[in-house]
Amino acid sequence: MAGGVFISYSQPDRGCAFELVERLEEQGIDCWIAPRDIAPSADWAAEIMDAISSASTMILVFSASSNQSPQVRREVERAVHRQLSILPFRIEDVLPSKSLEFFLSTQHWMDAFPPPREPHYARLCAHLKKEPAAPRPALPGLTPGKSASGKSAPGRDAAAFDAVHLRHIERQLAGFIGPLAKHMVKSAAAQAADADDLVRRLAEELDMDADRSEFIQRCRMPRRDA
User: Fold this and answer.
1) What distance in Å separates the CA atoms of residue 175 and residue 143, rounded to the nearest whole number?
2) What is the C-alpha to C-alpha distance for residues 163 and 158, in angstroms, rounded to an integer?
3) If one looks up domain 5-130 in CATH, what number appears?
4) How confident is the model at residue 132 (pLDDT cuts 50, 70, 90)?
5) Domain boundary assignment for the chain
6) Tens digit of each residue's pLDDT (9 = 90 or more) over 37-92
7) Whole-model pTM?
8) What CA–CA distance (Å, rounded) separates 74 from 124?
9) Which residues, 6+ apart, have CB-to-CB distance to 220 below 8 Å?
10) Nearest Cα to 67, choosing from 106, 100, 34?
């Protein structure tokens, strides 16, 4: 789905989200939506993260329900960090919670009420076809395949690291981003030169400087007595 549209929604808005996907795909706009595009045996969090990373645009079906959804907030947070274009498609006249307002305050909104929704779907399709998302700039900091020092990473996988230390790092990261941590640690381990480089790479995924510093501090394993 490289360059397509990621649909973020909460479960009570499933009907609207799938109607929207149907209208977009009728217009030739490639969409990714859960659970339709997740294989039965796949890791749910990993698939969502990969889809967000591959998309060029996120459409957020915004309602009172999605406004309070931790899963939606995590998806929006990842999209902002990956510099996706986000378009909240507001199907109810509600204001964003403080946690979402932080990420969406600078985004363009599209109101999709009152019903019927068909004209709003058509307007969204026209907008997406007229103004395709611009290519995202590379994230500052680490370059894929490079360590923090700028040297090429050896392409290790998670099995190459100390298992106890790796689980410790994963638990610390989960405290900041939830279940996505498992997939992120596995992906970063494939590029990291060593454990310190792995921690630095994962810290770059956190948006706040204070969180990055705290995460790095937490990842320091206590010394074992000889």
Assistant:
1) 25
2) 8
3) 3.40.50.10140
4) low
5) 5-130, 158-218
6) 998 888 888 889 889 989 999 999 999 999 999 899 989 988 988 889 999 999 99
7) 0.65
8) 24
9) none
10) 100
